[in-house]
Amino acid sequence: MTTHNPSRTHMIYTVAIIGFIFTLHLVIPMYSNSSFLSLFANAQTVGYIYMVGSAVSILGFLIAPVMIRRVGNYTAMMWLIVMQIVLFYGLINATDPYFLAFIFALQMATTSLIGLSMDIFLEGYTANNHVGAIRGLYTATLNASWVIGPLIGSMLITGSGDFKNTYIAALAMLFPLLYLVLKNFPRFHDPNYIHLSPWQLVKHVSRNKSWMWLFVANFILQVFYAWMVVYSPIYLNQTIGFSWEKIGIIFTIMLVAFPLIQYPLGKLTDKRHDEKGIMAIGFGIMGLATISLAFITSASILIWSIAFFMTRIGAAAAEVMMETYFFKTVSSRDSAALGLFRVTRPLSYFFAPIITAVALMFTSSGYVFIVVGIISLFAIIPSLLIKDTE
Description:
Distance between the termini: 20 Å
CATH topology: Growth Hormone, Chain: A
Shape: globular
CATH class: Mainly Alpha
Number of strands: 0
CATH architecture: Up-down Bundle
């Protein structure tokens, strides 16, 4: 990192800090969201709410490049944070189930678009010969918030079915986020963004076969995340019988995998350029470890922590390789392609409920881990078809 000029280095670390705060606001209520929604909706309806949020997010990604090109990334980011503040205030105070579901879906979309703006800021300060190290640092910093977020969230759940404090804490994180963006980015120089229609965008991406395979692999990873976020806490709480405090401990240990390995792996690929090999190994570990979860019946925190930790070792390796590869081959001008890469995240929330619904027609809830694990193993194929960077 020392080869960057001071201003660029300063801005990279600034973006990382802002990303940490942004992600913490997202993560604190993340693993209790599905349980919160289940207070006024059954499991199937909860899946539908996530699907609506995904649809709104996808629509937002299609509109975002036009908005960013017109008003600039800084202004777009400011308005999105203000909108998120309003939405979280609504989650805390609203009582009507339909209105709560509507607000929840909107905040999912707003969160996705703030993440896109963060990508544009970081890409604008990234030098091509340090993409791996910078993306490794950024993803490790963001994922560090995933380590402490579930623990904080579980501590804030004051009783059975009382999740309000998690949303209050998430709302509080948005104010320092707004201040830091206001302080650091008013003079951000927007690149000359490429204007593409949706059809032109599809053609633009499809010309790069490695991007196509990367998007497939990333979609499988995001399906894995979506399913785990929505269903694993419910399974641990309702089937295994863990309290929310114990679930918070398990998830905290599990998520240490991300800051532990992502920065070193990112630096490694700046030298060796073996993104697809490490990506494939990551998916292999992730898939096999997920399958093993189906066979654990013990209520031991240690056993579940180790098992979940191994799933995230694989996921962390695959994720940082995809981030590094994509941002080595894309420009900050290409906001539409950035949006398309990120659209795999909300799209995955369409498929996570479908996986569960179909799998439960043939097996019990625990064995759905096998289905998710096998799907994860299929990501090895597109990983190996990607052409390594040089």
